[in-house]
Amino acid sequence: MRIVSLLPSATEIICKLGLEDSLVGVTHECDFPPFVRDLPKVTRTLIPREATSREIDELVRDRLKTERALYSLDTSVLEELRPDLIVTQALCDVCAVAEAEVTAAACSLPHAPKVLNLEPTSLEDVFATLLIVGEAAGVAAQANHIVDELRGRVRSIADRSSTVQSRPRVVVLEWIDPPFSCGHWSPELVTMAGGDEQLGQPGMASRTLEWDEVIESRPDVIVIACCGFDVSRTLVDVEILRRYGGWSDLPAVKTGRVFVVDGNAYFSRPGPRLVESLELLAHALHPELHPAPIGISAAVQLAVPNI
């Protein structure tokens, strides 16, 4: 089977299922596992490389008004790759090629491939996508084994968190300029990690926040997980937070419980590494209860004088 992935999380799912040798094409954003960076790219982005967070937000809003996608599909490369299976999504118009464009391209190919559209909005939905891809690719037994292992790791954290006597008030920010709440699976991760998310709603999309909402929520912990940004890129924007009125008076800032995580690698991607996202979050909220995740860097904690 020849598989093309049209989103980074699908690429991670495909590789987690042991289908690396079947993966023949990926998006320009796919970067994990590292070998996929050398595979043919079937998408292009309209976002300038040096755009600021505010400029990216404005571009996204403008494109969504006109229902024009931010990414385009290179149909000539797709035709050359001759895929049997294309894995894409229709959950977020910002994150991938438009569904209609994918469908049209698939129908135009000489040998029409099967198209899987993944639309997870919760952690359990993400596990279901692994099973769906596994079934479509002929590795259903392997998919079931992997999902069982991932669920076991989640249960371990949830069981430990059930013993927490005092849950901190948590705000996860998915963007800084302008500020966005977290959405979909992230509020669920906060609950399982032993916290109470104040602004994001489980299963719902993230949304633009009025800064007063953050002030009024009085978070004990703030986690900054900018969508599509790694830690170093996110730290560039952290300075913007100082311009928001009342920032220095927030309990999380006063106690130095502001954390920066790699939103691009973890929280933004509905794939198997969401379990590592949970482990990162749990350790940040309750380090005395939850051990640091193995093999990845812990969340970066910002000291009060550096904010």
Write up this protein.
The protein has 307 residues and is an alpha/beta fold. The chain folds into two domains: 3-145, 3-Layer(aba) Sandwich (Rossmann fold); 166-306, Nitrogenase molybdenum iron protein domain (Rossmann fold). Helix content is 38%, strand content 14%. It has eleven helices and twelve strands. It has helices at residues 8-16, 53-65, 75-81, 99-108, 123-136, 140-161, 186-193, 211-217, 231-241, 251-254, 274-285, and strands spanning 3-5, 23-25, 43-45, 71-73, 85-89, 114-118, 169-175, 180-181, 196-197, 221-224, 258-260, 300-302. Strands 7, 8, 9, 10, 11 and 12 form a six-stranded mixed beta sheet that branches. A four-stranded parallel beta sheet has the order 2-1-5-6, with helices on both faces. Strand 1, helix 1 and strand 2 form a beta-alpha-beta unit. Helix 5 (123-136) packs antiparallel against helix 6. The longest helix is centred in the middle third of the chain and has 22 residues, at 140-161. It starts with a strand and ends in a 5-residue tail after the last strand. 45% of the residues are buried. The mean pLDDT is 91.
